[in-house]
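Consider this one:
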Amino acid sequence: MTVQQVKQDLKNICYYHLHKALIDRAFACSANNKFLNTLQIYNNAIANAPLELHLVYVGLYVDCCTQEALADKLGYTRTYIYMLNRKLVEFFVKELSAKAA
C-alpha cells in the first residue's frame, strides 16, 4: 500500500460520504461493489488508530470537513490538522500494508 493509494482511497471515501444516499441507490443494483469492500477495510483499520487520528478520519473523510473547518471545530490550528492528516495517511499505509502481507 502506497501513500498515493491511501490518498486516493480517502478521496473516494469522502466522495462516497458526500453523496452517500445516491451512491447507495446505485450500489443496490450490484451485488458486490469493490468500493464497499475498500470502505470496510478502512473502517476496520481505523479502529486500531489513536483517538486523535480517528477524529481526523471522521472529520475529514466521513463528515467531509475541510482541514480549516475541522481545525476550528476541534480548536486546533490548521497546521496541526495537516500534521494529523499526514499521520493518518502514514497510519493507513502501515496498517494496511501489514494486513496485506
Q: What stands out?
A: Residues 78-100 form the longest helix (23 residues).
